[in-house]
């Protein structure tokens, strides 16, 4: 009779516990630390025996049979958030203090078991769009100047306070979303499908192989004859001009065409073996026969082309090196650009939520090019757009026209520092060729060879003087380059073009946005 009453009283509680179990783990999870019919019957039996005065020391107790925390620890292992597990323990009347292995005494709170059970507890998470910036490792970082680099000018501890509250709220609005477990899980599958679809669309198909069109000898003859037709002087005078580098009869375009259409080895053999009437040859073949009579004709044509191009090539190289030098000096001395980069560092730490555990004290300038890759949740604004808007909000917008202080950098848009180095190497190769021709001409004793040796020796001295002036400009540029790398603590091995290109893109985007807002 007494057992039946206890069972009847526990029916409601048992059904409630079963419903909870189905919510968090299904019927496959066995309830632990709660009332069940087996435990009710065991307690009733124990109560009856105690009333009769019959104590059984070998009977197991209900509290010592199972670990009430085992189920919750398993939930943590499979990835359930700790906040959700602790909320479930509170509902079940289990003290969460023992979840980490503390004393289990007093773990159960029967007085809490009758509390109303929420049907769904929303647990909010944050989803964040991140700027994938990079930082140069300490081992590869150029040493900062004695007075400190750009990144050392502000206090790291106050980083989270330098951006105003409106700017922080704007960043949160664009790049941070709060999502629940149910919403997140329901969207997870479509996102995966979209990713698979996107990957399928973005994967380019293998281009079909096309047959290479081979240029015939007839085309070479036509192109060469077009260049030869522009020559109005006798071919013998042109050959003498090539031999002593007077550069009186040929233009640089003509020399380039002749060198590009120079006969192959088989064609040269055919020209050498030709013994018929010279006038019977076409005009282009007559020109080749005459020019090839000059010793080292092709090499001397290349030297003639260098003589025609050297003044402009050397001057352009010096001007480009000087422009890059002044642009680098602007970047290191501009107060506004310095503040913009420091503000951008705080913006990136806030957007990526890296203020606490993974604070970035510096970043590589090549990261500027990656700001356009990250979009906001509405897909209307990139990370670059968001920062330029913040730039307007901070300091009354006084930093938004920073590009005016680095205007020379914008002029470097079409300049390649690697290209300057390559151009200098080509000029040096031309200088070596001129010296080799001068040396080879000194071995002959005829009058033509002596004139050629004198002309090429003089030209070699002229080339050397020009290259010395160009090298001075390049040396000054390299000094500014090292200063730039030290100021921004960049990798000295990284190509300078990569940094300049990213800065130009960043500054032009700011200039465009500024013009739209004004």
UniProtKB/TrEMBL annotation:
Gene Ontology cellular component list: WASH complex
Biased composition (Acidic residues): 49-59
Domain FH2: 118-518
Superkingdom, natural source: Eukaryota
Gene3D superfamilies associated with the record: Formin, FH2 domain
Region described as Disordered: spans on this chain: 35-70, 190-209
PANTHER family: FORMIN-J
Name this protein carries in UniProt: FH2 domain-containing protein
Species, as recorded: Peronospora farinosa
